[in-house]
Amino acid sequence: MAFLVNEFAPLDVDGRLLDVPADELVSIPGGSIFCRCLSGEFIANLGRIAERQPEGLIVEASGVADPRVIRDMLVESRLD
User: Fold this and answer.
1) Residues 2-38: pLDDT tens digits?
2) How far is the C-alpha of 48 from the C-alpha of 2, rounded, in Å?
3) For residues 72 and 25, what is the distance between their CA atoms, to the nearest angstrom?
4) pLDDT per position as a tens digit, 21-80
5) d(CA 72, CA 55)
6) How far apart (Å, rounded) are the C-alpha atoms in residues 28 and 40?
C-alpha cells in the first residue's frame, strides 16, 4: 500500500501520526493538493507512486480540500 497525506498547514501533522513504513508514506504539507498551489506536486507524486506499483493508494486530503476535482486531475494526467 501507499499513503499520500495532505496537510493544509505548513508542517505535516497527520503523516507523522500514521504508523506506516516511511517508504509507503508521502506527505504534502502547505496547502490543498486539489488546488493549483499543490496540484503539480500531487500529480508528480502520484506518478512516482504508480511506478512503484503498490497494491493500492490511500489519499488523505486536507480537511479543507474539495476532492470533487480529483477525477478530472487523474484523467488529465492519465493516472486514472
Assistant:
1) 999 988 888 888 888 889 998 999 999 988 888 777 8
2) 11
3) 24
4) 989 999 999 888 887 778 889 889 998 999 999 999 998 887 777 777 777 878 887 877
5) 22
6) 11
Whole-model pTM over 0.70? yes
Query: How far apart (Å, rounded) are the C-alpha atoms in residues 23 and 67?
Result: 25
End-to-end Cα distance, the chain: 17
Q: Does residue 32 contact residue 7 with C-beta atoms inside 8 Å? A: no
Q: How many residues does the chain have?
A: 80
Nearest Cα to 71, choosing from 49, 46, 53, 52? 46
**Burial call 51-66: b when 16+ CB within 10 Å, e when fewer:** eeeeeebebbbbeebe
